[in-house]
Write a structure and sequence with these properties.
This protein folds into two domains: 242 residues, Aldolase class I (TIM Barrel, Alpha-Beta Barrel), CATH 3.20.20.70; 90 residues, no CATH class. The protein is built from 14 helices and 13 strands. α6 runs parallel beside α7. By secondary structure, the chain is an alpha/beta fold. The strands form three sheets. Strands 3, 4, 5, 6, 7, 8, 9, 10 and 11 form a nine-stranded parallel sheet that branches. Strands 1-2 form a two-stranded antiparallel sheet. The protein binds flavin mononucleotide. The site of flavin mononucleotide has 22 residues, from loops. Flavin mononucleotide (FMN) binds next to loops.
Length: 347
Amino acid sequence: MNMEPLDIGGLNIEMPVALAPMAGYTNAAFRTICHQFGCGFFFTEVINAAGITHGSKRTLFMLETLAGETPLAGHMYGSDPAVMADAARTIEDTGRFQLIDINCGCPVRKIVAKHCGVALMADPARLGRIVASVKKAVSLPVTVKTRLGLSEDRHNVLEVAKAVEESGGDAIHIHSRYASKQHSGPADWDALAEVKTACSIPVVGNGGIDGAEDAPRMLKHTGVDGVMIGRASIGNPWVFKDVAALLGGGEPEGRHSVQEHRKTIQAHVEAVVKLKEREQPFRKRGRMNSDEAAAVLFRPVLLKYMAGFRGSSSIRRGLNSMLSTAEVMAAVDRVLSAHESDWVNHA
Ligand SMILES: Cc1cc2nc3c(=O)[nH]c(=O)nc-3n(C[C@H](O)[C@H](O)[C@H](O)COP(=O)(O)O)c2cc1C
């Protein structure tokens, strides 16, 4: 299967395969790792637009980037068109972003309670006003990430997509599940196909890509213009390499060496340290040093990298006392040195 590049509002994306925004995971460190493995475009973790406009240091830190993670979307939530426009302007002014993305899919209660995230699906007119207002404020392409609806009996993704398109939105990314299902249950790719047929702006499909082979399957089944991969990439950036091989008409490697596994974990954890060092001026004094903070942030990611290895349960047991990146790597070495093959098969 040969894949066309993606054009989002004049932005050319060679490899139409995105790393999905995932709060707690898709920080600059992970994004740079995925870039090295061929991922085509990126999103920040979800950022509070009001936090940006208030100049909250913690929020502004989320706009920090590391080298080699473009094209990158500043992915934000909010419900006030003027605030969203202001925040988008700040994002554009950093000079680090190539896209602005509006969250219309997050089901977290405290976000929905503020009429943000997936709550905007219940008010497509407001979503349209947000898109129009952001479009007017910036010169970057503007996209929206949404779902199929709030629940099966409130399936209105077509209405939402129409509001985005008519307000000047440049693309729509669709997680093919309902908000009521959070991130679980089967994804509905027939519904994705229906949106693709109805839309004239690019549609990026998400949900249910559990391994590299699912990406060309989604493209074929739905006709979407690009795909977005979330959980299958955590601890497995190799998925992007395999998807790139499949979309280029080749065969995926399906495995990598144990040395490469170690090298990748080390590069990832070192990038997290770099990020935490960058965070120092944004953090309160007296907290953990950068290495310690990196080790703590990396814990859930480490579990994913080591899932399936014999002895990984020892990592899980020792996780809460892992307070330095040296300890992280020592735990990795203990498990990898007992691995009976020179190869690691991709999930
Ligand atoms: C831990 C976690 C955090 C997430 N955070 C966000 C977020 O900040 N913004 C967003 O639009 N979606 C978020 N999502 C949803 C993902 O972007 C994606 O739509 C979802 O995981 C389905 O894709 P997948 O099946 O490939 O994982 C999150 C998902 C997970 C598992």
